[in-house]
Amino acid sequence: MRAGNLVEGHRIIKFGILFILFCGVFYWITSLGYFAFVDNYTATMLGFLLQLFGLQSTVQGNLVTANGFSVRIVSECSPIFIFILFSSFILAYPTDLEKKAIGLFFGIPSLFTVNVLRLLIVFLTGLRYPEYFEHVHTYFWQTFIIILIFVACLLWLRLVVMVNIRNTPMTFFIRFLAISSVFFLLWLYLDKIYTVISLHIAELLLHWMGYHIHLIPDPNTRVYSSTFNLITFTSLVLATQSMGRNEKIKALIIGLPLMIIIEVIRVVYQFLAHLQEPHAFEIMFAAQHINQYFLPFALWVAFTYKDVFKRAGTQICPICGEEVIGIKEHVRKKHGKKALKKKEVKAVLEMEAQKTDFISMMVEKLRLGKVMEWIRNRLKTKEK
Description:
Helix 3 (80-92) packs antiparallel against helix 4 (97-128) and helix 9 (245-274) packs antiparallel against helix 10 (280-303). A hairpin with a 2-residue loop joins strand 1 and strand 2 (63-66). The chain is built from 14 helices and five strands. The protein folds into three domains: 1-128, no CATH class; 167-312, no CATH class; 314-383, no CATH class. By secondary structure, the chain is mainly alpha-helical.
C-alpha cells in the first residue's frame, strides 16, 4: 500500500513540475511576441461573425469596429491563456501520447471557436447595451475563460483518458455558472472595498521600501477586474462535487489569502512600473496573469488530485458503489454472473465499450497508431 502511495505521489509531483514548466515556457514564448498574430486572427474571426449578424464591421489589426463601437483584441481576449493552461495540462498529464494528441487536436480548435463566440456576446452587449458592457466583459473575460478550460479538461479526462471523475463536466459547468453569477453580482458592490484595502497594504509596503506615496483608486474605473479571481476560485471550489465540506474550507483558507498577497504584489509593481524600475512591468503582468488564470486552475487541481489522477478505467460499480478497475470482472466476482445482465450494469459496460471504440477510431483517423509505434521502436532501438 505504501509503495502504491509512493508511486501515486511521484506521478502527481511529476505532473506538477511538468505543468509549471510548460506554463512557464509557453508564457515566455508569448511574452516574446511570437503569438501576436493570434490577436489579429481572433479579431478577423470576430469581424466575420459580426458580418453574419448583418453588421458592417471593419478590422484593422486587432481593432474591430461596427456601428461606431470598437473593441481591441488583446492577449486576455484571444485564446492565448486558454491555450497555455489547456495544453500544459494535457501535455503534463500522465497518459498515452495518442490520447494527448487527440485532446490537443480536438480541444484547441473547439476552445478557440467558443472563445470567439464569447467575444461576440461581449461585443453585441457593448453595442446594444453599453451600460452593461463593463460588467459582462469582466465576467466573460476571466470567469468564463476559467470554467471553459476546466470543462475542456474534464471532458478530455472522461471521454479520452477514460478517468471516471466525480465532477461530471456539464453538472460542474452548471453549478459553477449558478454560484459564480450570484457571487459576481454581490462582488460588484464589494470589489472597490477590497481594492482600497489592497491599496493600503501596498502603500505600507512601498513606505517600507522608501517610497512615500498615497495610493487611491482610479475614480474612472467602474469595475476592478483584477479582483474577480477571488470569485472565480471560490465558485470553482464550491461547485466541485468531489470535495467534502472540510476540504472546501481548507482550499479557501489557503487559496484566497495567497491570491490577495499576489494582488498586493501586483499593485506594488504597478507603481514601480510607472517609475520605470527595471523589470517592474514584466513582474506586474506576470503577477496579474498568475493570479487571474494560473493560480485558480493550479490550486483546484491540487485540491482535487484524488479525483483528477484516478487510474484510467476506474469505474463506479452501479450495484455496490465501489470504485474499481475492470468493472466487468468486479461484477462477475462479487455479484455473480447473473448481475452482468442487469440494466444498470449493461449501461456501464456499453458506455465503456463506446469510449474504447471512440479512442480507437480517433487514433486511426489521425493515423497516430503507426506513428506512435514507429517512435516507440526508435526509442527501443536507441536504448539497446
